[in-house]
Amino acid sequence: LFGALDRQPPDALLAVIGMHRADPRPDKIDVGVGVYRDASGATPVMRAVKQAEARLLAAQPSKAYLGAEGDQRFTDLLAGIALGPELAASDRITGVQTPGGTGALRLGAELLARSGAGTIWVGTPTWPNHGPIFREAGLTVRHHAYFDAETAGIDEQAFLSSLDAAAPGDVVLLHGCCHNPTGTALSPDQWQRLVAKLAERRLIPFVDLAYQGLGRGLDADAAGTRTLLAAVPEALLAYSCDKNFALYRERVGALWVQSATPETGAAVRDTMLVLARSLWSMPPDHGAAVVRVILEDDDLAAEWRAELDAMCARINRLRTLLAAIHPALASIADQQGLFALLPIDAAAVEALRAQHAIYMPASGRINIAGLNEDNVARFAAAIAPYLGD
Ligand code: LMR
């Protein structure tokens, strides 16, 4: 049976983690996988998370099964953060807990396939896992224009006009904020024009919101998503708590689906639960319980917000530092989130790894939080020869 299977290349991004770990050079720099790092290069457990975990350890009454929807109170409290109070109260929106943002994307993909959607459009470039997630669910993945390497910004005209090739009922995958890998973000006006285009072409948006709070702040980072959901009849929102609660390996996320009517929404929810049951039966509890404990308690929630704001401020300080280093990096100051795409090729990425112990994926995407006041000058000197004049 298994003789028909081919060997597969290792996941390129996860391979960078392993290569960096194995490198004995003491001054190595990891700007690879998208995890927040503090000034010492660590990815600490957030203080609010530690306190919530202590409370759970002391008081959690049971670990008996919850159900395919996971911890519904977690999802409902998180809806207030992601969607804002108005949309969170909508009877057309229903949400369930998922194993991370990837679980949310996959559950949404399965729901789309079950609903008869055939094609999803993703931007060029996008997170390398987007394509596989949707293809594995049986959807056709097509690419629309998005990033202009010349300006290191969004080519809005090409973006919107490439959506003219989409058929009514096609789905469009959008990054809610802090675009991975480019760091770009749509302005409020650009969101408005995108909403008009989606409505004109009768396309269904599927927003991936994985970095809320790490760009401009919790509400600002969700503003585009909220505008979109308020304007269209149907939409999906995949959410990850990996980065903004630093719960990466706990796999905490949620999927919300907005339907045209509450009646349709009830069938959507039933279908989500049936699909979740066959995919993972029930999502892992611990991380979601931690987020629930934080959001249920005003003091813990305030502490979490303050920590998140400090992380966001550190990333933005590093962006300013990096942008000042070379004219080719100037746009990094206006971008947001963990990532920026360096204008360098795969050969340069390899040379940086071999000669300078600097680790990033072949695309030239860097995780800005991997830099700090001590290594940024060495990083700048190493990449300078590849940036042109
Ligand atoms: C990244 O893009 O680095 C993160 O989203 C981690 C991952 O799973 O790829």
UniProtKB/TrEMBL annotation:
<protein>
    <submittedName>
        <fullName>Aromatic amino acid aminotransferase</fullName>
    </submittedName>
</protein>
<dbReference type="GO" id="GO:0005829">
    <property type="term" value="C:cytosol"/>
</dbReference>
<keyword id="KW-0032">Aminotransferase</keyword>
<dbReference type="GO" id="GO:0030170">
    <property type="term" value="F:pyridoxal phosphate binding"/>
</dbReference>
<dbReference type="GO" id="GO:0033585">
    <property type="term" value="P:L-phenylalanine biosynthetic process from chorismate via phenylpyruvate"/>
</dbReference>
<keyword id="KW-0808">Transferase</keyword>
<dbReference type="InterPro" id="IPR015424">
    <property type="entry name" value="PyrdxlP-dep_Trfase"/>
</dbReference>
<feature type="domain" description="Aminotransferase class I/classII large">
    <location>
        <begin position="27"/>
        <end position="383"/>
    </location>
</feature>
<dbReference type="GO" id="GO:0004838">
    <property type="term" value="F:L-tyrosine-2-oxoglutarate transaminase activity"/>
</dbReference>
<dbReference type="GO" id="GO:0004069">
    <property type="term" value="F:L-aspartate:2-oxoglutarate aminotransferase activity"/>
</dbReference>
<dbReference type="InterPro" id="IPR000796">
    <property type="entry name" value="Asp_trans"/>
</dbReference>
<dbReference type="InterPro" id="IPR015421">
    <property type="entry name" value="PyrdxlP-dep_Trfase_major"/>
</dbReference>
<keyword id="KW-0663">Pyridoxal phosphate</keyword>
<dbReference type="InterPro" id="IPR004839">
    <property type="entry name" value="Aminotransferase_I/II_large"/>
</dbReference>
<dbReference type="InterPro" id="IPR015422">
    <property type="entry name" value="PyrdxlP-dep_Trfase_small"/>
</dbReference>
<comment type="similarity">
    <text>Belongs to the class-I pyridoxal-phosphate-dependent aminotransferase family.</text>
</comment>
<dbReference type="GO" id="GO:0042802">
    <property type="term" value="F:identical protein binding"/>
</dbReference>
<dbReference type="Pfam" id="PF00155">
    <property type="entry name" value="Aminotran_1_2"/>
</dbReference>
<comment type="subunit">
    <text>Homodimer.</text>
</comment>
